[in-house]
Amino acid sequence: MRLLHTADWHIGRRLHGFDLELEQRNAFAQIEQIAKDEQVDGIVIAGDLYDRTLPSEKSVGLLNQMLKQLNLTDQIPIYAISGNHDSATRLSIGSEWFLDTNFYIHTRVAQAFTPIEFGDSQLFLLPYFEPFEVRQYFGDDSIQHVDEAFAAILKQIKTRFAPDKKHILISHFFAAGSQTTDSETKLTVGGLAAVPLKLLADFDYVALGHLHGKDALRDPKVQYSGSPVKFSLSEANQEKGVLIVDTDDIEHRRFVKLSPLKDVKQLRGDFETLVNPNYYQTINRGDYIGINLTNRNQIPNLMSQLRKIYPNIIELKRANGYDDILHYDGESATNIRQSDPMDLMQRFYEQVTKQRLTADQLKWAQDTLHSVSDGGKL
């Protein structure tokens, strides 16, 4: 059996106010093509299909389009679970007839105990859970922590093991010893506390979601696929892609890299270098860029000048521990007073809302500022 393992699509995610829909569509198109080229028997999506529990109508439409393309048009079986960012209720809508097209999506712990058998394997789909759901399922108030919940779940799952099959677990959690990035939810709260690897020893392969880097954990049988798109500067150096897993040779699973439309990069240097054409013409200025500025001196309209060259700046920090009043881009109070009011307002709005002003909002703000500067009244 050959599986494509992916996770953490986070449809609807924004990167410091920038819409990532085009990047996510690009990643999906590559995943679909890889699945066809590799002639996979199924696609594993190990949680966090959405970025939030109440996704927008646009996000719901986009995910539905992707899943229909894979499952109905391409006729590839899908094995998916809900993650901690998903709404289990929303994902489970329609699940009664999904089975007719080999689309398996599990959103409740109780579903994990019924294996899906295909070829030489049994797949157990265990969605993200909070310990109280497991307490209720087993009627056992002694289950208080995630490792206790996992122990109880896996003990029952193993009673369903067929001796002549490979046993694959699909789940969404933090495995002990994994490395995290700042784009992932705090991992010591509720159901996201660490799960000891020894609990997973009886599985032939554990396909995980939640951590966004494929190298978050090094284990012969337990693997994160990582996210298909970069969601923060802390992921700038990560390779994004999917895993191809053959059940008859699991330890030699292959990573297939995805190519982004816009990459995420971290630049470090002084202002004079960053605005020098000899420097910036050597890089893709359309990427999402974080800047670590080494200057200590005041620079008028710093962000405005940099954005003319790097339009997709997602973070600007001062290096060498330098800090002052405006943490957003490191400008001093004197420099703030000299800045263009529209520039200040746009930056403040983006800092607070993590979104950029729309064209209508910009026009309204410009009209208002002109009215004030001309002596008019609001």
TrEMBL record:
An individual GO BP term: DNA recombination
- Which Pfam family, any one, appears in the UniProt record? Metallophos
Query: Where does the Calcineurin-like phosphoesterase domain lie?
Result: 1-213
InterPro entries membership: Calcineurin-like_PHP, DNA_Repair-Maintenance_Comp, Metallo-depent_PP-like, Mre11_N, SbcD, SbcD_C
Give GO MF terms, alphabetically: 3'-5' exonuclease activity; endonuclease activity
> Carries keyword Nuclease?
yes
State if Hydrolase is listed as a keyword: yes
Q: Which UniProt keywords apply?
A: DNA recombination, DNA replication, Endonuclease, Exonuclease, Hydrolase, Nuclease, Plasmid
**Domain Nuclease SbcCD subunit D C-terminal residue range list:** 261-352
Stated family:
Belongs to the SbcD family.
Please give the function described in this protein's UniProt entry.
SbcCD cleaves DNA hairpin structures. These structures can inhibit DNA replication and are intermediates in certain DNA recombination reactions. The complex acts as a 3'->5' double strand exonuclease that can open hairpins. It also has a 5' single-strand endonuclease activity.
How it assembles, according to the record, is: Heterodimer of SbcC and SbcD.
The UniProt entry, under PANTHER family, shows: COMPONENT OF ATP-DEPENDENT DSDNA EXONUCLEASE, NUCLEASE SBCCD SUBUNIT D
Q: What is this protein called?
A: Nuclease SbcCD subunit D
Protein source organism:
Nicoliella spurrieriana
Q: What high-level taxonomic lineage is stated for the organism?
A: Bacteria, Bacillati, Bacillota, Bacilli, Lactobacillales
- This chain is encoded by the gene named sbcD
